[in-house]
Amino acid sequence: MTKNKIYLIDVTNRDGVQTAKLGLAKLEKTLINIFLDKMGVFQSEFGFPLTGHETNYLNANLELANMGMLKSIRLSGWTRAMSGDVEAAFKNVPKLKHLNVSISTSDQMIEHKFKGKLDHAGIIREMTGAVKCALKLGAESVGANAEDASRTGMEYLIEFAQAAKEAGASRIRYCDTLGYDDPFTIYERIKTLAGKTKIDVELHCHNDLGMAVATSVAGAKAAVDAGVDAYINTTINGMGERAGNADMVSVILAIRKSSGFSNKYILDKRVDLSKAWKIAKYASYAFGVPIPINQPGVGANAFAHESGIHADGALKDRRNYELYDFEELGRGDPEIIETGRQITTGEYGGIKGFRNVYGKMEIKFKDDAQATEILELVRYANVHTQKPLTDDELRFIAQYPKQARKILTVLP
Question: Does the domain spanning 5-284 belong to CATH 3.20.20.70?
Answer without folding.
Answer: yes
